[in-house]
Design goal:
16 helices, 2 domains, alpha/beta, three-stranded antiparallel sheet, 344 residues, D-Maltodextrin-Binding Protein, domain 2, single chain
């Protein structure tokens, strides 16, 4: 009987300790939330993008700015800052942005890849930044026009077609170059078109036969909807939900090294349009921003606004996005070297 009573006493003591620990944890969480609320109350969070108004970066940033503040303790307002300047804007963000949680940005999905393949340009350390969450992936699509000399993967192995390109740094050049070298397709890449708006015109005129670009930007265009152009290959780590029958670049390539290069150069698509904060921001504020983002992407009004503008929402959490970025940075040196060679 004494042993029984002693056992009951121990159980009671364990329950008291557990309840005390839970109470202490809840107290700490409440205190952290109070600190976050005190900081953000009456404050404005900026979302910096390196492009002018009107593009996908701007559209996603304004959707976040209109809806996310209500989920952050203290309910700050948001402002979108358009600072066209490309890579230099990210450098400034990395080097000089305040590390207090009131400055965020949406930058190209390739910043980790540029850090590895073009270190003279990518003078930042993505691993020191904090991903808050990704709004959607940006799988790039190879779109070929009807009437082109070759319109299937098999035909492209023996017949050459013209591929439009803006500049030799983006997917409009790099993806066709990868497929030329490792997929043995016959692409003649023509660079120099002034911006993405010029490519549909060139397609319609027959100057070029193919373009590569983000599916989210092309999917609603009339030439795609009508079938005047069709997707035949996509880049990314997984097939886009809209395109389950369109193969990935690495699925078309048989060479093992080529597959790894294609996966590496496509990995940024899984990061997509992602909100990011500088390094050094207090941990409790990053946690609050990530929690707010996770609630945002389930918000009915946010989703209604996205649908009304034809904007795709296919979210990932901050931790998931950070893990993808970390995996890119862990790419073996021989794969990076092969990718650099293709990019030249």
């Amino acid at each position: 009987m004494k042993g029984y009573k002693s056992g009951r006493a121990v159980e009671s003591w364990i329950r008291c300790v557990a309840l005390s620990a839970m109470a202490l944890m809840a107290c700490r969480q409440a205190h952290a939330q109070d600190r976050v609320a005190t900081f953000y109350a009456g404050r404005t969070i900026s979302i910096l993008i390196a492009y002018p108004p009107g593009g996908s970066y701007d559209i996603y940033a304004r959707l976040v700015a209109s809806n996310m503040g209500k989920y952050i303790p203290g309910h700050p307002t948001f402002i979108v800052q358009n600072k066209p300047g490309g890579i230099g804007v990210l450098r400034s963000f990395y080097e000089t942005a305040p590390k207090d949680g009131a400055t965020t940005g949406i930058f190209p999905e390739t910043i980790a890849i540029v850090q590895l393949t073009q270190p003279e340009m990518g003078k930042w350390k993505v691993q020191e930044l904090n991903y808050i969450g990704s709004l959607a992936n940006v799988n790039a699509i190879f779109l070929v026009r009807n009437g082109a000399p070759a319109t299937t993967i098999d035909e492209l192995k023996t017949k050459s077609i013209n591929v439009g390109c803006n500049a030799p740094l983006g997917v409009s050049y790099i993806n066709p170059a990868i497929m030329n070298k490792f997929g043995h397709l016959q692409f003649k890449i023509i660079c120099g078109y002034p911006g993405t708006a010029s490519l549909p015109v060139a397609l319609e005129r027959g100057e070029i036969d193919m373009v590569t670009g983000a599916w989210t930007a092309w999917k609603s265009r009339p030439e795609v909807v009508s079938g005047a152009v069709k997707p035949i290959i996509q880049s990314g780590l997984a097939r886009h939900k809209d395109l389950p029958d369109v193969p990935l670049m690495q699925e078309v390539i048989s060479d093992p090294k080529g597959k790894k290069v294609a996966e590496f150069m496509s990995a940024g698509s899984a990061i997509g349009r992602a909100l990011i904060a500088p390094g050094g921001v207090p941990v409790d504020r990053i946690a609050a921003l990530r929690s707010a983002f996770d609630q945002l992407v389930k918000d009915d009004e946010f989703l209604r606004q996205a649908a009304a503008s034809g904007t795709e929402i296919d979210p990932k959490t901050g931790a998931e996005t950070q893990a993808i970025s970390d995996a890119i940075l862990a790419t073996p040196a021989d794969v990076i070297a092969a990718a650099v060679e293709v990019s030249k």
